[in-house]
Amino acid sequence: MLITPRVNGSMAKCLTICVVVAAASLLSVTAQALPYEILYESDADTNVNELVLNSFDSYNDLINYNYSASIVDVDISTAYSSTGLTYDGDDWHILYETNNDTNVNELVLNTFDTFQDILDYNYTATIIDVDISAAYSSTGMTYENGMWHILYESDADTNVNELVMNSFNSLNDLINYNYTANIIDVDISAAYSSTGLTYDGSLWHILYESDADTNVNEMVLNSFNSFQNLLNYNYSATIIDVDISAAYSSTGIHALLDSSPPPTGIPEPSIFALFSIGLAGMGLRKRRKKKFQ
C-alpha cells in the first residue's frame, strides 16, 4: 500500500510522549560516542539563511544540547520543505517534500559530496515522481546498512496508525519509489510532531519537537533497540531541555557512523538566542506546513 503522505517544513503533532526519561543503559558506549547533526529550516520564507545545522560531538552532548551551529545561506523554494537528513557513507542527502498536494514529483532528494558542500549548498537534485497521500507528511529519512527508510506521520490526530515507515532496498529503489510500507500503530501526542529519524548502528531514534513554543523541553528523543521494536513502538524517551527559536523548526537528525566527524563549521552557540531576539514578536511557530489539496 503506498501510503503517500503529505507536507512539512515546520511540523504539527506528536507522540504519546510518555515523559519517561529514557535510558542511558539502553545506549551502547559506541552509540553514545557518535556525533549527531540536527537540521533546522526557517518557518518563514526569508530568502537567505533558511537552513541551520546544529552539530553535537556525542549523544550526551545532544541530550544536554551542547552544540555548534552552522548557518546554511540558501533560499529554499517556497514550494518545498526539508523533511530529512542522512549520510550513506559516501554522500549527504536532504529530503524535500512539496507543501502542496501536486500528485506528481512530490519528493526531491538533494545530494552533497561532503559536509562542507552542505554548508556551501553545492548539490545535485533528484526528483522522485511519487504522489504522497494527502493524509500524511514525510518527517524523517535515514540510511541503514544499504537500505533507506522514510518516516511519515499523519497530519490529523487519528489516535491510531499515526506513523508509517516506507523502506527501500537501494538508493535506486528510493528514486523509483519501489518500497515496502509498515504501519506503526501508535497514538502520537497532539502536542508534538516527529521531525527526524536516524539509526546509530545499534539503536533507532525518532526526534520529536513541540508544536507550541514552550521555552523548555521542546524536544524528545524516542529510542528503539531494534527495527522491530520501532514498528511495535517499544521505546524509551529522553526529554531534551532546550528552547528552540520560534523562527525555526527541526526537520532532520542524523547519527554519523563514519569514524571521522564532519567539520562543525562556524561555531555560533548563541545563534538561536539571536534569532529569538530578532523575531520575538512573531508568536508561535507553525510546526508543519499542511499540504493544500
Summarize the structure.
With 293 residues, the chain is mostly beta strands.
Q: Helices and strands in order, then pairings?
A:
Layout (H helix, E strand, L loop, with lengths): L28 H5 L2 E7 L8 E6 L2 H6 L3 E5 L7 E8 L4 E7 L8 E6 L2 H6 L3 E5 L7 E9 L2 E8 L8 E6 L2 H6 L3 E5 L7 E8 L4 E7 L8 E6 L2 H6 L3 E5 L7 E8 L15 H8 L15
Antiparallel strand pairs: 1-2, 1-16, 2-3, 4-5, 5-6, 6-7, 8-9, 9-10, 10-11, 12-13, 13-14, 14-15
* CATH fold name: Tachylectin-2, Chain A
Strand portion: 35-45%
Q: CATH top level?
A: Mainly Beta
Q: Which radius of gyration do the C-alpha atoms yield? A: 17 Å
Principal-axis shape equals: globular
Helix percent reads 10-25%
- Residue-averaged pLDDT, rounded? 83
Number of domains: 1
How many H/I helical runs? 6
- At CATH level 2, the architecture is 5 Propeller
Distance between the termini: 21 Å
List the uncertain runs. 1-30, 264-293
Please state how the strands of the largest beta sheet are arranged side by side. Answer: 3-2-1-16
Structural class computed from helices and strand pairing: mainly beta
Profile the largest sheet. 4 strands, antiparallel
Kindly state the number of beta strands. Answer: 16
